[in-house]
Design brief:
286 residues, alpha+beta, 5-stranded antiparallel beta sheet, 4-stranded antiparallel beta sheet, 10 helices
Length: 286
């Protein structure tokens, strides 16, 4: 039986052809002990199978996805769709070769009319729960149904989180053949038959409150080459806010003003990654 889905602790940086850059590097960071929220990667071979199977996920691949989901639920102690303590997921595509801005992400998957109320109660932060649900509905509507802008408000969001997950995977696979992605590959001489992998990961919430945030950094100053963390961050935001430019970020030098204990940890992790990969690193963090 062919293996199509890999937990992060089963992969490595040498498996880019199967796991894509994102999946392979998440696996490598897991292997060296960094605090990576646990998850699994659906391989590029599954993407190829999807297109060979008239854009449907085969029963075998679906079973492998749900088996890995059960493993993730065991690790986190949460269950997708559970109204008591629900697991929420990030679903991200990641090709073998970097294609910035061409592929898609869906955050907060697992929210529905019932679990949003549970998140509001468990977190004690109703605004956070509603904000997360709105973000999920908008991206899910765009990626899965092809709606843009405010059209998402007129879509009845699928209430079964497992159906949400499979539909999200289909939407991200289909994005591989979107017009923009196809043109990008042609311009950059990237083969069309490589396919994309998809990483499924337990959510980390940069938008929880004023003590949460997200950012990007380089392990070297790109202007001088000096070894220092160089980048930007946002308070009370998710990664898509950084990518879209919807909010004005703070320079990384100011992070101590908002998160006094984070800067040294970022320096430590940045140094470890640079030594491990033996080159300057571009890091996203929440």
């Amino acid at each position: 039986m062919e293996k199509f889905v890999y937990s992060f602790n089963e992969g490595s940086k040498d498996m880019c052809d199967l796991l894509g850059l994102k999946g392979a590097n998440l696996a490598e960071m897991t292997q060296i002990g960094l605090p990576v929220p646990f998850g699994f990667t659906i391989s590029t071979e599954a993407c190829k199978d999807f297109f060979e199977n008239e854009e449907e996920i085969s029963e075998e691949i679906a079973n492998q996805i749900f088996n890995k989901l059960e493993e993730l639920e065991t690790v986190t102690g949460r269950k997708l769709g559970d109204v008591g303590n629900p697991l929420l997921l990030s679903v991200r595509s990641g090709a073998v070769i970097s294609m910035p801005g061409m592929l898609d992400t869906i955050l907060n998957l697992g929210l529905n009319d019932a679990t949003v109320e549970s998140i509001a109660t468990v977190s004690g932060n109703r605004q956070f729960a509603l904000d997360s649900y709105k973000r999920f509905m908008q991206r899910f509507s765009e990626v899965v149904f092809g709606n843009e802008g405010e059209d998402f408000e007129n879509i009845e969001i699928l209430q079964d989180p497992k159906v949400q997950l499979l539909e999200a995977v289909k939407g991200l696979f289909r994005a591989w053949n979107s017009e923009n992605a196809t043109i990008y590959r042609r311009v950059n001489n990237i083969p069309n038959d490589m396919g994309t992998a998809i990483t499924i990961q337990s959510m980390a919430f940069g938008n929880f409150d004023e003590e949460s945030g997200t950012g990007v950094l380089l392990t070297r100053n790109p202007l001088t080459g000096e070894k220092e963390i160089y980048g930007e961050f946002l308070v009370n935001a998710q990664g898509e806010d950084m990518a879209s430019g919807a909010k004005i970020p703070h320079k990384i030098e100011e992070i101590e003003n908002y998160f006094p204990n984070i800067k040294e940890e970022l320096k430590k992790i940045s140094n470890l990654l640079e030594l491990h990969f033996k080159e300057m690193q571009d890091i996203e963090f929440t």
